[in-house]
Recover the amino acids of this structure.
């Protein structure tokens, strides 16, 4: 019978064969376990077309509500990606989804000095990616972006704590700072401006961005990376076929 130490030695050799030393790489084929031998497999669910409704907004709301009730950490966290033209350079950042209706997905941010605002000036296309690790699910959204007006943005702005409203006024988002003291000086100036005032107007350069999707993909992780993927594509006017405004296709993983 083989000794325990001999079995461990063979196991170590096997892992080394899977991931031989890559001296030129800082990271190579990482995994979550301590042995770093194999990537995790997704086994928590499956997805069939029959489980999907005809409207991607309602389907997203169903998945989002499920994520909220099943201990997904901050399911509203989403990666917003934009691209500048003519270079085509893409930039991405994590933001929070704040609203959803049958017009689109809404996030709020600075649109005066930020990188995203410069991208959107010349290219209205944007994408959102949600990743819910606890459920092994993701949702991708691609569509045209439009800025919401001040009246719409004020409704959400009023729900923020006072410090966040002051911060929205004070920050010159994405501009180079000489140091933290410079930022804190801007905050003090805005605090003086609104001293004693509970009602603070939304800044003209800050507000909501609505992504009006042309495509929404629902992704459920599966074993061996053979994931279930379904894509809703907005139908063109006059297009015949399935009823409703969206066509649903299964995609290869």
């Amino acid at each position: 019978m083989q000794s325990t130490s001999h079995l461990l030695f063979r196991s170590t050799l096997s892992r080394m064969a899977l991931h031989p030393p890559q001296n030129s790489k800082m990271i190579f084929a990482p995994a979550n376990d301590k042995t770093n031998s194999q990537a995790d497999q997704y086994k928590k669910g499956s997805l069939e077309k029959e489980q999907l409704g005809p409207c991607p907004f309602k389907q997203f709301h169903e998945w989002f509500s499920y994520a909220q009730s099943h201990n997904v950490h901050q399911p509203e966290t989403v990666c917003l990606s934009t691209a500048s033209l003519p270079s085509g350079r893409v930039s991405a950042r994590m933001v929070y989804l704040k609203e959803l209706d049958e017009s689109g997905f809404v996030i709020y941010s600075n649109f005066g000095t930020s990188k995203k605002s410069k991208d959107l000036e010349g290219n209205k296309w944007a994408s959102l990616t949600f990743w819910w690790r606890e459920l092994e699910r993701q949702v991708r959204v691609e569509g045209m972006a439009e800025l919401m007006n001040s009246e719409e943005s004020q409704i959400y702005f009023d729900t923020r704590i006072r410090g966040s409203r002051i911060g929205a006024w004070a920050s010159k988002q994405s501009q180079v700072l000489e140091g933290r003291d410079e930022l804190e000086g801007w905050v003090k100036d805005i605090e003086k401006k609104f001293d004693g005032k509970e009602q603070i107007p939304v800044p003209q350069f800050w507000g909501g961005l609505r992504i009006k999707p042309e495509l929404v993909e629902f992704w459920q992780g599966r074993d061996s990376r053979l994931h279930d993927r379904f894509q809703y594509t907005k139908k063109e006017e006059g297009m015949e076929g399935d009823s409703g405004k969206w066509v649903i296709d299964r995609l290869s993983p």
Summary: The helical segments are 4-18, 56-69, 115-122, 150-157, 162-170, 180-193. The chain has a mean pLDDT of 89. The first strand starts at residue 77 and ends at 83.
